[in-house]
């Protein structure tokens, strides 16, 4: 098994957690760590040493690591606005590129990813961990078996109370604050859209044609700051541009529709609201249940217990079956581990990445498209990043 | 207590059930029954007699009953397309008018209701039973107490598997079939929108400004007919215009947004998905739970038992408190009884109707507006049926 020398860009909250996971993957050596802040670099070096690996090289500028010919792959966990520039540079340097999720800032961002990949053919993967969810892959498996019939509508959301993260963004050096102050858009679409795009074969026989987004007023942060930061004069007087609830409806080439909800500045519990509806059945995360025509009666078949319910027994995805047999590892219920392993496996084997540059471009495009739709009140069209190839690209599942 | 002589128009499935309820209300005499079909008239007469009342007069043409000076009120339970013409004629004849729900066929339908009411001042109420739901009125009560803070977003749906009703429309003389074959719109908005409009003070301090609707493909009926009516050559070859899922987003004058889902031709269990989100808390029907900021932790406060949970104890609406003390009666968990009693009480007292002609016009307008939005791909504006009066009309709750 070929050893992989990896570099990590971005060692904040997310990056440091992912670094710890990377250090557990057999045959991966973390030879470079990079962050803008020295304290984070120091912590990164310490984590690598603690895992028994050689002290890594380090830098505040990721370009330093790209000139190291021994480096095989780069993991990008930095702030949203840095994802695409760093990924483009990594691909140009020929380093296999794994990029953390976030929305794009412009459609040109998305085209840059695609054009750079097409020019360099450097392996690229978007690290959308939710595509590896136990429920998400089970539902995809059931869809592939035809249990839901023809899929007509899917729904998902990023429903996560992030008020503290936003309000204390200055203290925590977090990029959300400035985004929420100034922008109004579906700023984080891929967690919910990724698994849905896989179900609907987006970029592989189907594509997203158009989108319309509507923003509610922005009242959640104002109330939160009044309660929790009354002494922060700047924020007390700030108007947040970001609407509390962004509702986005996407129409696909095959006539299926997708409903996305961004809901991050009101009090609530976490949910991604994953829902798939077809002509023969449906799955709903909110009630965590499957409804099959002619099998279920007019009540949900309850499925309350993670991993033990009958649908998991029968339809658990192959990727999860293997994983559970080998023992679950890592963060976010295992999905971070699975996505990192998928990337590392493809780097070694040269197999096509399961979430590729066209997926990344299409999913991340939702952010600037939603921004345009909210600003103008119009529906907007998706660019076709595959240049027509979606009509006959072969299926490639994460299963 | 003044006796009320009532006429009933429409004695199909819904009308006959409502007639049975009407016959239980003290001081209401059903003196006229009307339907296009003689068998239904006969059954209606029988129901009235069985309740111990005098044999009612009957007709196939509702205009006959409107010339009876002893008639006080008319209840309209007929097919969708007949609601507005009948209501207009009833108001012109000075008969207090209770109209069953459904969408409008045109914006002019809505204006006719409004203009006729303004000309005649005949009391008019839309019979939107869901406004009287136990959960809906509890949530409205909690909103009025300020428990959810400033309301930012509401969600509702008419999620009801009606494939059998549609497919067997010819056999059952039901109006849905022709609507589903030919139209593509949010055809039944008021069950979900009514309670939300009350929460958001629509027409009383707030109004709905614009709407955008998106339709999925129509695949559910095709599959159902293939399975259940393969010998019906007409339907086997029919293309249904009505998309399976209609997603509608409404923007209000105060910046709140409303998400509506019509979902009637795919296999599923029933839900209206009532959801209210504010700066301090939320309610969700799908998990039947309340989340209050600072009280709930990051898990739902489960509320699984109808009527016994702590929020019902503390926040049950006055209208339901009375009702439960007097013993629950009637269909759909009591809501039909409550709406009929509300109408009858207002007819007697002359008090303003809790769901008035402006509510009816605004809510029913969603149907033709959604049709226009789906057809053109554009957002469309709501007419202001109050002619500006919404800016200072006094609140009037159903509580």
In short:
Chain A is of the alpha/beta class. Chain A contains 16 helices and 15 strands. At the A-B interface, β8, α10, β9, β10 and β12 of A face β8, α10, β9, β10 and β12 of B.
Explain what this protein looks like in three dimensions:
- Two copies of one chain form a homodimer.
- Chain A has two domains: 4-130, Rossmann fold (3-Layer(aba) Sandwich); 132-318 and 356-391, Dihydrodipicolinate Reductase, domain 2 (2-Layer Sandwich).
- In chain A, the strands form two sheets. The first copy, chain A, has a nine-stranded mixed sheet.
- With 399 residues, the first copy, chain A, is of the alpha/beta class.
- The first copy, chain A, is globular.
- Chain A has helices spanning 13-22, 38-50, 63-66, 80-92, 107-120, 134-144, 163-167, 176-182, 190-199, 220-228, 233-236, 310-315, 318-326, 335-349, 357-364, 366-376, and strands spanning 4-9, 28-34, 57-59, 73-76, 96-100, 124-127, 151-159, 208-215, 245-252, 257-263, 275-278, 281-284, 289-292, 301-302, 380-381.
- At the A-B interface, strand 8, helix 10, strand 9, strand 10 and strand 12 of A face strand 8, helix 10, strand 9, strand 10 and strand 12 of B.
Low-confidence stretches of chain A are 298-308
Number of helices of chain A: 16
Could you say how many structural domains of chain A there are in total? Answer: 2
CATH architecture of the largest domain in chain A: 2-Layer Sandwich
Coarse shape of chain A:
globular
Rg value of chain A: 21 Å
* Multimeric state: homodimer
Range of strand content of chain A: 15-25%
Give the total of beta strands of chain A: 15
Helix content of chain A: 25-40%
| CA distance, first residue to last residue of chain A | 23 Å
């Amino acid at each position: 098994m070929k050893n992989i020398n990896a570099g990590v860009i971005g060692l904040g909250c997310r990056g440091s957690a992912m670094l710890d996971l990377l250090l557990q993957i057999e045959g991966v050596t973390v030879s470079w760590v990079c962050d803008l802040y020295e304290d984070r670099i120091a912590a990164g070096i310490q984590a690598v040493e603690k895992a028994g690996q050689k002290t890594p090289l380090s830098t505040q500028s990721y370009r330093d690591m790209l000139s190291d010919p021994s480096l095989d792959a780069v993991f990008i966990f930095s702030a949203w606005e840095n994802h695409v520039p760093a990924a483009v540079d990594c691909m140009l340097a020929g380093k296999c590129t794994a990029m953390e999720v976030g929305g794009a800032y412009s459609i040109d961002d998305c085209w840059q990813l695609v054009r750079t990949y097409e020019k360099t053919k450097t392996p690229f993967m978007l690290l959308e961990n939710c595509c590896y969810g136990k429920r998400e892959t089970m539902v995809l498996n059931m869809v592939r078996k035809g249990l839901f019939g023809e899929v007509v509508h899917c729904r998902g959301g990023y429903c996560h109370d992030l008020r503290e993260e936003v309000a204390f963004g200055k203290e925590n050096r977090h990029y959300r604050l400035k985004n929420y102050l100034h922008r109004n858009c579906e700023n984080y679409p891929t967690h919910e859209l990724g698994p849905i795009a896989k179900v609907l074969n987006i970029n592989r026989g189907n594509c997203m044609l158009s989108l319309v987004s509507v923003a509610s007023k922005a009242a959640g942060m104002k109330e939160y700051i009044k309660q929790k930061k009354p002494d922060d004069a700047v924020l007390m007087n700030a108007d947040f541009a970001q609407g509390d609830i962004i509702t986005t409806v996407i129409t696909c080439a095959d006539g299926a529709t997708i409903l996305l909800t961004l809901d991050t500045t009101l009090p609530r519990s976490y949910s991604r609201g994953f829902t798939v509806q077809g002509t023969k059945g449906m799955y709903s995360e909110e009630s965590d249940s499957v409804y099959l025509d002619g099998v279920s009666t007019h009540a949900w078949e309850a499925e309350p217990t993670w991993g033990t319910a009958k649908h998991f027994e029968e339809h658990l995805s192959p990727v999860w079956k293997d994983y559970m047999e080998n023992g679950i590892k890592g963060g976010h219920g295992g999905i971070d581990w699975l996505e990192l392993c998928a990337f590392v496996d493809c780097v070694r084997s040269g197999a096509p990445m399961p979430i590729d540059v066209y997926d990344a471009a299409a999913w991340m495009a939702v952010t600037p498209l939603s921004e345009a739709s909210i600003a103008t009140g119009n529906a907007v069209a998706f660019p076709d990043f595959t240049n027509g190839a979606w009509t006959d690209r072969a299926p490639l599942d994460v299963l």
